[in-house]
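During the reporting period the student researcher (J.K.) took over the structure-prediction task from the postdoctoral fellow and processed the backlog of single-chain submissions. One of the processed entries is reproduced below for the supervisory committee.
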Amino acid sequence: MRGPAAARSGGLDPGSAPLPLLRRIAALLLVAVLAGCGSTSPAAGSTDDPGPLRIGAIPDQDPEVLQRLHGTVADSLSTALDLDVEYVPVTDYAAAVSLFRTGDLDLVWFGGLTGVQARLQTPGAVPIAQRDIDEDFHSVFVVNAGTGLAPSDDLTPLGDLRFTYGSETSTSGRLMPAYFLAEQGVDPEGFPGGPGFSGSHDATLSLVASGSYQAGVLNEQVYESRAAAGEIDPAVVRYARTPAYHDYHWLLGPRAVERFGADLPDRLTGYFTGLSADVPADAEVLELFGAGSFVPTEAANYDQIEQIGRDLGLVN
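J.K. obtained the following structure tokens:
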């Protein structure tokens, strides 16, 4: 039993503590518990503002074209999903991959190769959707009329020409064309003076038209779009079309899921695959993408691209 001296020394017997003191202790414990609950992430129920969903794209076309295309997508997405959506332009293909990896871009329109690179560098990233045409995509080789070459399936004459690809990490402007050239015995790096890299499909068309390069290769969809608009210089001759492969797709980063909730991938896939040519606003998006519709996709669709990328040293 404790004596009076112990009580005076400041020792506390919980069984005999005054009721007001116990109430104060309980209140302090409650505050601590509530403070801990306030540290949950937005996806777990916090009211913290997750900020905008930041979308981007590889810069494979002229900046004005991309601004119109993805600005329209941002507005459409914002309305459909009741989210703040912002389009963030990037300077080059590598920047798109890097900004996706760091979480500065949430949803990016990648080509097949850059999509593989970004997904491998960003654990938890998931493919969302691709266009119907991306299930059966092609590149086209073009030559300057001055070469005298007529359209052909034989790629071997291209090996003797000054040749330009698009971006170094473009699927349709470099990776797959290099693969198909090699299949026909053409060294994809052995062009006179070495291959050029124009940076975009539109730039490839301009360089071949001017004669700066005698031949080049680009995304078929861009070629067809420019041809339909009467924007292909008569000096550019369509020479050959590659076999089919999977290409462009939307890739979603894991940090966006943390901020907006676990249902975000399904909501985005539902939005894209639900776009209908019968709805004027949807039809505008589909037309800008050169697509009849969007379809679900998965990582396995890009296994061939990943393997070719590894063989060419473009995927680690």
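The committee noted the following: Residues 196 and 205 are 13 Å apart (CA to CA).
J.K. will present the remaining backlog at the next meeting.
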